[in-house]
Amino acid sequence: MASDIVAVTAASVWSVNSGEAGAPSGRGSYLTGIEKRPREAILITAPLGGGGRSGVAGDHVGNRRHHGGPDKAVYAYSREELTWWEAELGREFPSGFFGENLTTSGVDLELLLINQRVRIGADVVLEVSLPRQPCATFQAHLGERGWVRRFTERGRCGAYFRVISQGTVRPHDVITPLNAPDHGVDLRVAFAAVMGDDSAAATVVETGCLPEVYHRKLAQRRSRVTPARGR
Predict the structure, then answer these.
(1) 63: CATH
(2) pLDDT surpassing 60 at residue 8
(3) Which of 54, 217, 66, 214 is nearest to 136 (CA)?
(4) pLDDT of residue 25
(5) What pTM was computed for the model?
């Protein structure tokens, strides 16, 4: 697996992005900030207070029940994947269009391990927390039929991070992966697990690497599909 990762010296921030309240969500009950625009710099801070706030100063979160908060403070997606989808769909996708705060270059995000830390620039340290789960708002934003299914089948989910050390991030800042947890669960496995793959779910549950609420949901799902002993 490690041989698939682009050399650390090539890993960097392509674009930093934040969003304002924009179009209605897929269900029309709130204004979404999913379409983010490139900025000269963003300030990353640990979300404080109630509700799902972004870890990027000034970044709008429409649905605070399912987005934002400590475990979804910052979202990263690669420029390489945006380019792949451009070729696949015959459209242009500017950085930030998939809702990412950090558009990365030269690093395979999905090979990062859950709870692995990365340093960005001189001051910011983030910790991989969760895969992105495609939702109705994402599908409405893309305007592509079957988008949730297609995104899931591609398996390239990007990375949600929690904030360990705060600071300012700019384009071209170097991304340096730090510690590698010994559980071996990367974002590809975690994404497959939360999107319905029972084998991946079993692996993730056994390691207990996801935040408690996600671990509990997967464990409950596993208990429904695992035959009782002796039968």
Answers:
(1) 2.40.33.20
(2) no
(3) 66
(4) 54
(5) 0.90
What is the DSSP code (8-state) at residue 53? -
Say which residue, 229 or 115, is predicted with more confidence.
Answer: 115
- pLDDT (average), residues 166-189: 96
Domain-located, residue 71: yes
Phi, psi of 201 (to 5 degrees): -60, -40
> By three-state DSSP, how is residue 1 classified?
coil
pLDDT for 161 equals 98
CA gap 162, 166 in Å, rounded: 10
Q: CA 44, CA 42: separation in Å to the nearest integer?
A: 6
Convert the pLDDT of each residue in 193-206 to its tens digit: 999 999 999 999 99
Considering its fold, how many domains does the chain have in total? 1
80: containing domain: 2-179
Among all chains, which residue has been given the structure tokens 């270059």? 105
Helix H or strand E encompassing 91: none
With b meaning 16 or more CB within 10 Å and e meaning fewer, what string describes 4-40?
A: ebeeeeebbbbbbbbbeebeebbeeeeebbbbbeebe
Q: Which is it for the CA torsion 188, 5, 164, 120, positive or negative?
A: negative
**Residue 128 CB burial class (10 angstroms; 0-12, 13-18, ≥19):** buried
* CB contact at 8 A, 89 and 60: no
